[in-house]
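2024-03-11 09:14:02 INFO queue: dequeued item DUF948 domain-containing protein, len=133
2024-03-11 09:14:02 INFO validating residues
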Amino acid sequence: MTLEIFLLVVAIVIIAVAVYLVLFLKKLSVVAEETQQTLKVLTSDVNVTLYQTNELLAKANVLVEDVNGKVATLNPLFTAVADLSVSVSDLNHSARGLTGKARTGVKNTAKAGGILTTLNLFSSILGKKKKGS
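2024-03-11 09:14:37 INFO prediction written
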């Protein structure tokens, strides 16, 4: 009889463990299904994000090509402006030199004019003295 009670208790424990395992496996199955659904949603979201990223990169590449073309068009303009600025700088330098020479010429002309005026004055004074003498 003790053996029968022992076997009965063992059978009840085995049934209890089996029921617990069935409930645990059902919960585990639900978690696995939810995980599978989450992975499907994540996969879908990642695919959409990758598609949008590819589209964005394609547009960025088009914009970069456009900018490169415009920069290539503007480079000769900047080169021409740089050459023009060098020419204007040379012209300014030459004009300063010419202005300096013109000032020197004006000073010399003024001196010569002053000398001529003085000579005319002396000659007119001397000419009056000769007439009056």
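2024-03-11 09:14:37 INFO annotate: The CA atoms of residues 83 and 117 lie 50 Å apart.
2024-03-11 09:14:38 INFO item closed
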